[in-house]
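User: What would this chain look like folded?
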Amino acid sequence: MADPTPSDDAASRPVSNGSSLHILDETALRFCQGLATRELRTRSETLESISKAFEPWLGDGLRTESVADAIAQPENDAHGNSSDATLSVEEDLLEIGEEVEEGRLLMQEQLPVLLRLSVQCPFSDVRERFTSLLEHLKMKTAKVPRRLYSGPSRFIPAQEWWKAYLRKQTFPEASKAVPSDDNNEKVQMLFIDAFLQNNRVDNITQIMGYHPQYLEAFLRTQQIMLRGDGPLPYDYRHYIGIMAAGRHQCSYLINAQIQEFVLSGGDRGWLQGLEYVPKKLADLYEINKILAHQPWLITKVHIEKLTKGSGWSLSELVHAIVILSHFHSLSSFVHGCGINPEIDHVNGHTFRPPSLSEDIDVLSSSPTPSPLQEGEVVILMEKMKKLTEEPQEGEASQEEMTKRFEKVESQTIELTSADVVAPTPQADILRFVDDSHFGYQDFAKRGEAADIPTFRVQDYSWEEHGYSLLNRLYPDMGTYLDEKFGITYELTYYTMGVLNGVDTSTLRRSIWNYIHCMFGIRHDDYDYGEVNQLLERSLKSYIKTVTCFPERTTRKDFDSFWRDFKYSEKVHVNLMVTEARMQAELLYALRALMRHMT
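Assistant: Here's the prediction, encoded as structure tokens.
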């Protein structure tokens, strides 16, 4: 089906902005895009152009107030009447006044962007120029924004994040950071790559920077998925991202994808809500809802409805499914790591001056972390060592292995607290959500097991089935995702808390398979008895929340598990949730596609 052409009428309709979303036009979004280049000369020219745009605010140049005064006091003739010439001047001044006001509003919208770039741009010339420009504007009594958060996460103290891998040459705040090593150099290059791709080093990228090998694969995969060759139009890709993020009330991702949607030339009328999008796109919502919460419900019937009734080709549908699962799982990462709003997004900055008792991070003041201890880590390491070194008493039968899986599966039900109330979706998010009450239900409660049996990996696996089918319908994407899954699963620095030289393979396998268990996926060759031996209750509770109800995640949840582990290790848990969840959704969807094709 051809991509619908945005209508003039729809494009001109106003878009009501809620409390957490702010929609800029394409001109405003492209204002600083010329800075996303490695060429110093090009950046310098762009910086000069931007500085000139602010000159009326910095000197005695044209001001809106002076124009208004001139219009209010026209010259009169000898009889006290305005002459035709004066009327002409008045009209000209009115026109100029309108242009100046439009320019003033544009500049006002750019101030938070300048603030972000003055802090987070990986190029020092940009940071220094915009820091100076904002200071000059402040001296001229212009209202200059300030950021509300000092770091990318409200769960990780800013000082811990800075010293993890940054150095002074990258961000001004990192002056107290430890000297950079080779790993840090890798992070710097990845931050530059991210900036060139997105004109920002967003907070997700900064937190993923704890694990540069993963970040590299993530950036490459997302870039190809959203901006590379593929069957879907670019505006469809970003709107599908909005739809997916809406299922978990992830305003962070919705904001980001709205900007990308506008930059791709998308019809702004669609941003009024799902009822304004083409039928083809609206019909995708059913599998969006199912994949996000109960992917085991998807069948070949859903595939047939879209391919036969809504005009989706198989390649388009596979591309859409990859995007949906990507943003569902990325919503888990955003909520699970407490990602703060971008500085230039709503709730990331304020124009009001700080009070005497208020300092940065007033909304999320992170506690100073206590020194790490060995106790909890040593206990876990001994359990892991016992599993790998001590022979088991005889090999468990298949019946016993099944019982152990079912025990872990049923125990996950107990981890859902009845006291936890799901947050109420905001109106500006609800316009991208249909059937908001549909959510995760424990697989063990699915009803008749014969109707929806456990998904056995030996019958349909990513390695032997999903990977090849995805590559066939969406060339190379299976390869990129396979690399990302593998990096996440195998990622290790042979450390655990303050200890070094630790083999964490059994722990990583337990976490990955436990996440799959919550989606009814069983690895037949795995002894699920290891899950209860290695994963304490607080960790299992956190994993379930981030996997199944990410919008409910709190800092208390984040702080409750692995108190003696590093923040980078907690981020790794979130990466495993992100990738294991995405793989689970893809397994169910690709199996349904295969059954439809056969």
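The mean pLDDT is 84. If you want, I can go into more detail on any region.
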